[in-house]
Amino acid sequence: MPIRHSIKRTLSKVAWRAYNTYRKGLDYNTQFSRTVEILNAPRETIEAFQTERLQRLLQHAYQTTPYYSEFLNGTHLDISRIPPLEKQSIREQPDRLYSTAYTQKQRIRNATGGSTGTPLTFYQDRGYWNQRNLSVYYFDQWAGWDFGEPQLIIWGALADLDKDGHWKHRFNNFWRNQYWLNGFRLTDTAMWAAFEKMNHCQSQTILAYPSSLYQFAKFICENKLTPLCKLKGIITSAEMLHPHYRILTESVFKTKVYNRYGSREVGLIAMECAEGRMHINCRDLYLEIESPDPYTEPGEILITQLNNYAMPFIRYRIGDIGLLSDEICPCGNALPVLAELLGRTTATFRTGSGTLIQGGYFTQQFYGIDGVTQFQIIQESLKHCILKVVINEKWTEATRRYLVQRIQDALGATVAVTVVLVDEIPLPPSGKREYTISKVDTDVDDLRKP
User: Fold this and answer.
1) Alpha helices in 271-421, H assignment, sequence order
2) 222: pLDDT strictly greater than 60
3) What is the dihedral of CA 99, 104, 107, 108, to 10 degrees?
4) CA 208: distance to chain centroid?
5) Is the model's pLDDT at 395 over the cut of 90?
6) The CATH number of the domain where 367 resides is what?
7) What pLDDT score does 251 carry?
8) CA of 289: how far to CAs of 238, 296, 314, 315, 323, in Å?
9) pLDDT at residue 450, as a whole number
10) Listed residues 342, 358, 379: the one ending a domain
């Protein structure tokens, strides 16, 4: 390994330690050791820890959060008395979900990317973020990640979404020893540069959107390129990892893909181990399956986030369907296993020039659009897109023009965009909505080996 790479890795490890000490306090090492201890503990210890955290959260919610106090009894805090928390309830009465123990300045604003049809705004506190990161560090190490190790990230490049934050984004990449490929715009030039950077820096892991990772693997395969870095593992997140994505990716990179399940609202929910089982993050959340028998009959997943006290999410209906397993995983970890998961997926769009645009780019264009209740974008061909929208009283002609312009900015000025106003967007047979659909280049059976 070149000396400069060793120096960069050492400096990055020091920077990670300084960052975590600043964010989490001087007892960071103790906190992380405790995180590892809990997540590696026997099942009984894990369940006892989770129960204690759940009761503490319910007590807090009863005493400080108007929305929950009407359902709970102070002497008997039974979570089953609380109905599932719907996204619509969060939109309609956010003030009743704020804890009175936190000031407005102590609440950190966050929002989803709109994969549920409408972006959802909510608030979290610093304690949530600190605890969330500790668990992410733990689970990512299953895939070979470690502080300071070079990592390629195939994600939505923040600099393209927020020009004012460009220098911060690049600075953070430097001290974290991370290298980005913008998953929202996968040009051949960008993928070639990322491939060379990955080889040059000897990346140890990749973190990626599954669909963008698949397109990158296809590019490497079709151009008969050979990755020279010895990857320890690949982490996928934010979308459904389809079998053909995994097959091609593992074939091209000669390493295992570890699928991570989570959401912006509640953090990391579960992650795949070396044996391919999806282990539930019981340290940070309490997961329920809305089903008569969650071990034999799939049902909707309800999540209670145990660390966010500023705006508690208790029994939050996340929009996915799952099934639990009662097996003890061969990997040796005692965390319970999520046996099946029917998650969300977005499409990869293609422009006339061959540029690939990840579906998440389009969902982010709906941030702050008050006139749209729900949407669906369908790429019918390279020259035609359909935008279906369920509108509300705030919809204007200016809104229509803005959305058409944003789609054409990505796909090309000559692309015809048909805006169709509909009363509703019906659910497909799977019960899972798809908000970005491309009918262009949909042949996914060509899993050519390099």
Assistant:
1) 360-364, 397-411
2) yes
3) 150
4) 10
5) yes
6) 3.30.300.30
7) 97
8) 20, 11, 14, 10, 7
9) 31
10) 342
Least confident of 98-107, 167-176, 259-268: 167-176
pLDDT tier at 440, thresholds 50, 70, 90: confident
Burial class (CB within 10 angstroms; exposed 0-12, middle 13-18, buried 19+) of 297: exposed
Can you name the residues that pair with 341 across neighbouring β-strands? 322
- Asked if residues 417 and 330 have their Cβ atoms less than 8 Å apart, the reply is no
Position 16 pLDDT exceeds 70: yes
SS3 content of the chain, % helix, strand, coil (to 5): 40, 25, 40
CA-CA distance, 17 to 28, in Å (whole number)?
8
Whether residue 355 sits in one domain with residue 334: no
**194 and 334, same domain (yes or no):** yes
Query: Is position 444 within any domain?
Result: no
Domain that holds residue 353: 348-438
C-beta of residue 238 within 8 angstroms of C-beta of residue 264: no
Q: CATH number of the domain at 241, please.
A: 3.40.50.12780
Give residue-wise pLDDT tens across range 164-178.
457 787 888 899 999
The verdict on residue 448 lying in a domain is no
User: Do both 334 and 363 map to the same domain?
Assistant: no
- Residue 271 near residue 139, CB atoms below 8 Å: yes
| ∠ CA 105-106-111, rounded to 5° | 90
- Asked whether 301 and 322 are in contact (CB, 8 A), the reply is yes
pLDDT above 50 for 159: no
- Residue 180 bridge partners (DSSP): 153
- Check: CB of residue 83 under 8 Å from CB of residue 288: no
CA atoms within 13 A on the CB side of 414: 6
Q: How far apart are CA 395 and CA 387, in angstroms?
A: 14
The encoded tokens of residue 103 equal 């000031």
Last residue of a domain, one of 284, 307, 342: 342
* SS3 call for 191: helix
**Total residues belonging to the chain:** 450
Number of structural domains found in the chain: 2
Say if residue 204 is in the same domain as residue 337. Answer: yes
Q: Taking Cα atoms as reference points, which of 169, 275, 252, 260 lies closest to residue 208? A: 260
Here the tokens at position 106 are: 């102590």
pTM higher than 0.85 for the full model?
Answer: no
For the chain, count helices (H), then strands (E): 13, 19
Same domain, 188 and 319: yes
Residues 207, 216: contact at Cβ < 8 Å? no
